[in-house]
Amino acid sequence: MSATPPNPSTRPRIVDIAFWCWVSGAVLTAALGMLTLSQGGHPFIYAAGGLLIAAGLGQGYLAGRARGREGKFAGAAVGLAMASVAFLALLLLFGAGAVVICIVAVTMALLIAGSVLVQRGVAQEWFEGAS
């Protein structure tokens, strides 16, 4: 009995997990943006809400393209996720309630987890195999 090599066209499970982490983080990011917009007030609040919505939509788009085995979009998704994490951390400095802090923490954890998983060796080999 010989072991058959894995099919290179089969998407690794780690890429699927990273995709769903990114999509969940993108939905929460956009939801936080809508919540921020609903607070009203200073123009900075409107700008922050708009940026969060745009980041959430962009993250979802990039995650979908990365799931389609396009490595350059995976790299862009990692960059956008880390920029979103930094922006969310900056927004926490302006004060937030306990519920918002918990939502932001979960969002940041999902974006970071997706970024770490897609950088793993198995995922990188799968992306490089598409070239």
What's this entry about, in short?
The chain has 5 helices and no strands. By secondary structure, the chain is mainly α. Helix 2 packs antiparallel against helix 3 and helix 3 packs antiparallel against helix 4.
Number of DSSP strand runs: 0
Total separate domains: 1
Number of helices: 5
SSE ordering: HHHHH
Strand content: under 5%
Rg, Cα atoms, Å: 17 Å
**Class based on secondary structure composition and strand pairing:** mainly alpha
Helix content, binned percent: over 70%
Task: Tell me the span between the first and last alpha carbons.
Answer: 32 Å
Q: Extract low-pLDDT stretches.
A: none
Bulk shape: elongated
Quick one: biggest sheet?
none
In round numbers, the mean pLDDT is: 89
Task: List its traits.
131 residues, mainly alpha, 5 helices, elongated
Descriptive report:
With 131 residues, this protein is mainly α. The protein has one domain (13-128). It has 5 helices and no strands. Helix 2 runs antiparallel to helix 3 and helix 3 packs antiparallel against helix 4 (98-118).
Provide the fold topology.
Elements: H1 13-39, H2 43-67, H3 71-92, H4 98-118, H5 121-128
